[in-house]
Design brief:
heterodimer, A: 154 residues, mainly alpha, 2 domains, B: 504 residues, globular
């Protein structure tokens, strides 16, 4: 059997998996009865409904013709992983190293995700964004964000 | 005249120095992100939510509202000058606006867009002020069954009127509703789907979802595409004032656009995007005079109508949010989130419990529109310069502001990790052609929907027919079912697909 819409095929599978996952998870919680619905009542029903819709999409993707097969196309793994890594790392180091160090790290790594990377541009971004963020978030909005590394601030 | 008293109260609030400043700030920021392609109001408002902790509720909401309608003004500038819609609602403006710019009439196009938006914004504000109180009265008659049905209607409406595959969009709503189930059950106190992670027992923050999917996910998909070639008509912006003939042509289009936009904005799923599409179609069907420029070749009505409509729609989409607490689109979903952050339960009681906020916000929209017309017409040169900022400077800035905003939400690293994870989720959605906006609506409405469903079932002793036997509730459900049926009809289905084809 040929897949006629790649996008719908995979979305269908995704919805089925998520729906069944939630419905299965809901069995851990009291279902209650219609008169006294428990915490598992609503998610169970939703999960089943979700899986059904997913199955419909899956079916449609195998049956209904499309012009170009609706391909998913190449994945932009490089920017995806760089951004995810940069953001995750930033979340980890911000409380430890403070904004003055972690922002430049975030900006430099993030800039690597673009097509072209120039140190000059990255440094301009670092200076502007770090000073700007300090001014807006710490000086202006007075949010509690560590500015310097915790080992320096004591 | 109660309306006048209310508006007087509102203007009193809106004209305090602090609120004027925040409205101004919101408008500037809105224009800015409207002008810049690749950064929309959803991501921006999500980015700013953490910072409103430091503000009072009224200035915070005034600022966020300013961002939304400011973006409608800014988006048209980009559409006209570089043929790239700065906002999705300016897609159709680009068609005729850009052609006008190529013929050296960029000034007239910008003026038509700006003045049309201003007119529509003023009308939209009056409509909100006039229609909000009676709707609020009606909302007080709602029990849990009615609220549940209303939310079903709202969610269905949101996807019926949106673009793309209907089944996928409904599946995305369900996904949002399911993600909203990750929390502690309000009635029994049982933590659900938390996998013993303490942060998850409070539920996923909707800001992390919005930032991950709309902010970072969009950056990744932008970077994944080859860089676009931009041609900016900066030098040709001379003679801002349109000719008398332009006025004669544009004014009826503005009137039609305003009327259409005001109606479509109130509908669930409506708002700026749909309004501008509908207005363009309407203008194309109307013949003004025999010797006018063809559509697609620089007709001023093709700019004035949709621009008026998208601004009117942006304004009136506040009505369901303010009166019922039900967001008709993703931006309003974030506004609901903002109110919750400030400890205000969105719903019909806001008007009586926080009249200052309610009427202040409405009055500030008029003030904001007046500011925007000044910001956008005489100062147009400043915004044009912004268009020359390359994306390689832009996206690190977005990442930085999202990152900081996300951390400061709860001062927790966990939220930042979640946002990183939602970047992947957002990119998968993008690749699979699943629109994320319905997910956000579902996520916001999920807990409310569950609570109302369970309360309604408790009241009816487990009888599901309660949703069909209570007349208001039944009416709302029938309306929802009708919407699906109508969209599924073959002739309408084809039309709908055709209408959204123009978007690509």
């Amino acid at each position: 059997m040929k897949i006629k819409s790649q996008r719908d095929f995979w979305s269908g599978l995704m919805f089925i998996a998520v729906g069944i996952g939630f419905a299965w998870g809901a069995t851990n919680y009291s279902f209650g009865s219609s008169a006294r619905p428990g915490p598992g009542y609503f998610p169970f029903g939703l999960g089943i409904l979700q899986a059904l819709l997913g199955a419909f999409l899956l079916f449609e993707s195998l049956v209904v013709e499309t012009e170009d097969g609706e391909p998913i196309g190449p994945w932009a793994f490089k920017p995806l992983f760089i951004i995810m890594f940069a953001v995750g790392l930033f979340g980890y180091i911000l409380p430890k190293l403070g904004m003055a160090l972690s922002l430049p790290i975030l900006v430099v790594i993030t800039s690597l995700a673009g097509d072209e990377f120039h140190w000059k541009d990255a440094i301009i971004s670092v200076v502007v964004l770090t000073l700007g963020s300090w001014f807006i978030f710490i000086y202006g909005l007075k949010l509690v964000i560590p500015l310097w590394p915790s080992f320096l601030a004591g | 005249m109660e309306l006048l008293n209310n508006l007087a109260l509102g203007f009193g609030v809106a004209f305090t120095l602090q609120n004027l400043l925040y409205a101004f700030f919101g408008c500037i920021l809105g224009t800015l992100i409207g002008v810049l392609p690749g950064l929309g109001p959803v991501a921006t408002i999500a980015m700013l939510l953490p910072s409103i902790y430091a503000l009072d509720a009224t200035p915070a909401l005034i600022m966020l509202a300013g961002i939304y309608y400011g973006a409608q003004y800014g988006g048209s500038t980009t559409a006209i000058l570089i043929n790239v819609p700065g906002e999705s609602s300016s897609v159709v403006t680009a068609i005729d606006g850009y052609q006008m710019a190529r013929k050296g009439r960029a000034g007239a196009a910008l003026a038509a867009a700006g003045l049309g938006s201003f007119f529509a914004g003023c009308v939209g504000t009056v409509i909100i002020a006039a229609f909000a109180p009676p709707l609020t009265e009606l909302a007080f008659k709602f029990g849990p069954a009615e609220y549940f049905s209303l939310m079903v209607l709202g969610l269905i409406g949101a996807v019926v009127l949106a673009s793309g595959s209907l089944v996928k969009a409904i599946a995305m709503i369900l996904l949002g509703l399911l993600m909203g189930q990750i929390n502690t059950d309000v009635i029994s106190g049982v933590p659900r789907y938390s996998f013993d992670i303490p942060e998850l027992t409070d539920g996923i923050g909707f800001v992390t979802i919005a930032m991950g999917i709309f902010g970072f996910g969009e950056i990744v998909s932008n970077l994944g595409r080859p860089a676009e070639h931009r041609e900016v008509f900066t030098k040709s912006v001379t003679g801002l004032w349109p000719t008398k003939r332009d006025f004669m042509d544009a004014f009826p289009a503005v009137l039609r656009g305003t009327a259409l936009g005001s109606i479509l904005g109130v509908l669930p799923g409506g708002g700026a995007l749909l309004a501008s599409f509908a207005a363009y179609t309407l203008e194309k069907k109307t013949k003004a005079r025999p010797d006018e420029v063809e559509f697609g070749k620089g007709n001023i009505r093709g700019v004035a109508g949709p621009e008026a409509a998208n601004n009117a729609g942006a304004q009136t989409s506040f009505i369901p949010m303010l009166t019922l607490g039900i967001p008709p689109n993703a931006v309003m979903a974030l506004m609901v989130g903002a109110m919750t952050i400030k400890g205000i339960q969105p719903g019909p009681q806001v008007m009586t419990s926080n009249p200052q906020l309610f009427w202040g916000l409405i009055a500030s929209m008029w003030v904001g529109n007046a500011m925007l017309i000044i910001l956008n017409l005489p100062l147009i040169g400043m915004w044009i310069k912004l268009l020359t900022v390359p994306y390689r400077f832009l996206f690190p800035a977005i990442v930085v502001f999202c990152g900081i905003g996300c951390y400061t939400l709860n001062n927790s690293s966990f939220d930042v990790y979640m946002t990183a994870a939602f970047t992947l989720v957002g990119y998968i959605f993008y690749k699979l052609g699943c629109e994320p906006a319905p997910l956000l609506l579902g996520f916001i409405l999920g807990p409310m929907m569950e609570e109302n469903l369970r309360r309604a079932l408790l009241l009816s002793r487990g009888d599901w027919t309660t949703f069909g036997t209570r007349p208001l509730s039944a009416g709302l459900l029938v309306a929802a079912a009708l919407m699906i049926v109508v969209v599924m009809l073959p002739s309408i289905k084809a039309k709908r697909e055709e209408a959204f084809q123009e978007e690509d």
